[in-house]
Amino acid sequence: MIEIKDLHKSYKMGSNSLHVLKGINFKVEEGELVAIMGSSGSGKSTLLNILGMLDGADSGEYTLDGVPIKNLSETKAAQYRNKFLGFIFQSFNLINYKSAAENVALPLYYQKVPRKERQEKAMKYLERVGLKPWAGHLPSELSGGQKQRVAIARAMAAEPKVLLADEPTGALDSKTSYEVMDLIQKINDEGNTILVVTHEEDIAHMCKRIVHLKDGVIVEDKKVEQVRAEQYV
Amino acid sequence: MFNKDRWREIIEVLTTNVWRTIFTAFGVCWGIFILIVLLAAGKGLENGIKQDFGNIATNTMFMWTRATTKGYEGLPKGRSFEFKISDVQALRDNVPNLRFISPRNQLGGFGGNNNVVRGIRTGAYNVYGDYPEIINQDPMAVTSGRFLNYNDIREKRKVAVIGLGVKNDLYDKEEDALGTYIKIQGVNFMVIGTYKKNNSGGGEEGQKEIFVPFTSFSQAFNRGENVGWMAITANDGSSISQLKEKIVDVMKKRHKVHPEDTRAVGYFDLYEQYNRVESLFGALKAVAYIVGIMVLLSGIIGVSNIMLIVVKERTKEIGIRRALGEQPWSIKKQILMESIFLTLISGMVGIIFGSLVIFGINSLLDSVGPVDMFMSPSVSIGVVTGALTILMVSGLLAGFIPAQSAIRVRPIEALRTE
């Protein structure tokens, strides 16, 4: 599903440049649930941004579902993001003047799905995250866990190939974190490919595979026994 | 482009900070208001002045003779001469593009003695000997009977068309003037028509004129072949100002006037005067546009500023939307539409207020009666559509920089903004 070869990325900081990713080789099969771990500054967010086509790599190859991702124009990148990727952010990033249902329907709007169908799909995904009764509420009227569930519903609404979660539990208490992870696990059970960036060990162990990043290189890549979040809920 | 979601979003964005939106809108509103009112005031002035021209054919010159100031071909200087009726044909033959040439003779004039008698009533009026074409050069509405025609000219009928002012003086109110006789300097003329001029230019004087056939006039008042003066109108599309020199030259030649004698043939070029007034109003209009657009411009800059702030405030949202796959062009369009919408709506409010003010002035003018040099200020629908076009364009311009800055921010940076 995802294949990257010898990926390099550096940022310019004034006169000197900061080499963040120093040759990443990495492969994700369909249906995997991968945790990317590392301390801050290890380059995990940068990696996720490149995977998410929010940022470009300096060198290396990136193939997503057989499509080479290289030198994309903004328009093309937007199109690919919409078609291939679903984003889940630490700070939820819901649009605060739109209701939960409208937020979920947003990616579909960019796909030019007709209004009626959009609303139906949005309701379907809200139901899956257990928030159907809150469909008409604004984000400000929802709790943190609920917001993240809306964000997950939004990420799934466009039926992307890969879900990218950047510290999805970073802003939540542990109980809510487990609820969210439970949801992510269930989505993964249905065969969706998910990448989770986290620095929390317990969250990482709820995935099926852990990739450790340190100073811009992968230091460890292991399959783990998945801890089900259900038992903590 | 015009889907519901986009509009909802525009409304939502503009109503999040209502007072800010209103203050911004006021800038544009005020600009367009000034523009409309200035243009209307200019138009009012123009209407007032142009009314003095009435609907006289403006592509016209008047020409008369004076004493020569140079001797020529053995003739002395200081010699008087007069136009002859044959000059008319000569002009037709020698000068192209002339539409009407009306030789005229005249009795009476400013402060003249009583020259018209009917029964026991008398009055002093301008009496003109004219050809039927004069009605095209000095337009008047025939209110009863008819105007002069060529049968009158040919048969030298002693008939007269009188102004309503004349009729009011010489007749009782309900009396019918047609078929009655008036005595002009001792010669009886039958009244065949009455007229009313609707230009106030001549004022009351314009209604106190009597028109009789040129030929009868010449015979009755011993003018022979002489012509007092001429009114010459050029064809549409060629200006009398360009033809006048040729006309004057033809006259000089026929009357043995020294070619460099500039005094002998006098003329008044109405077209030139009219053009002068026209260009004055053109300048006035230009000033109104410049001032209005300048004021509008500051409003537009206000809109542009606010849109920049809106974009700044929404940087994160824009980042989210781009991460979700919104096309950069779509975001740009959104910002542009917000800007155009805001400009257009506030501009329309300005136009409405401007129109109300103009309406108010008009009804005030109606109630106090005519005012000198000012009449029915108005803006045409063309000006309004022009103003709306200006608004559209300026909204577009105002939104352009903010929209550009909105898509210049990379989504990843936009997402980092807290």
UniProtKB/TrEMBL annotation, chain A:
The keyword Signal does not apply. SUPFAM superfamilies: P-loop containing nucleoside triphosphate hydrolases (SSF52540). Keywords: ATP-binding, Nucleotide-binding, Translocase, Transport. One of its GO terms (cellular component) is membrane protein complex. Residues 2-233 form the ABC transporter domain. The keyword Aminoacyl-tRNA synthetase does not apply. InterPro entries: AAA+_ATPase, ABC_transporter-like_ATP-bd, ABC_transporter-like_CS, MacB-like_ATP-bd, P-loop_NTPase. GO terms for molecular function: ATP binding; ATP hydrolysis activity; transmembrane transporter activity. Belongs to the ABC transporter superfamily. Macrolide exporter (TC 3.A.1.122) family. PANTHER family: CELL DIVISION ATP-BINDING PROTEIN FTSE, LIPOPROTEIN-RELEASING SYSTEM ATP-BINDING PROTEIN LOLD. This is ATP-binding cassette domain-containing protein.
UniProtKB/TrEMBL annotation, chain B:
One of its GO terms (cellular component) is plasma membrane. The chain crosses the membrane at residues 21-41, 286-311, 340-361, 381-401. The keyword Transmembrane helix applies. Keywords: Cell membrane, Membrane, Transmembrane, Transmembrane helix. GO terms for molecular function: transmembrane transporter activity. It holds the Pfam family MacB_PCD. It comes from the Bacteria. Its main location: membrane. It is a multi-pass membrane protein. It is found in: Cell membrane. Residues 290-399 form the ABC3 transporter permease C-terminal domain. Residues 21-249 form the MacB-like periplasmic core domain. PANTHER family: ABC TRANSPORTER PERMEASE YTRF (PTHR30572:SF4), MEMBRANE COMPONENT OF TRANSPORTER-RELATED (PTHR30572). Belongs to the ABC-4 integral membrane protein family. This is FtsX-like permease family protein. It comes from Flagellimonas chongwuensis.
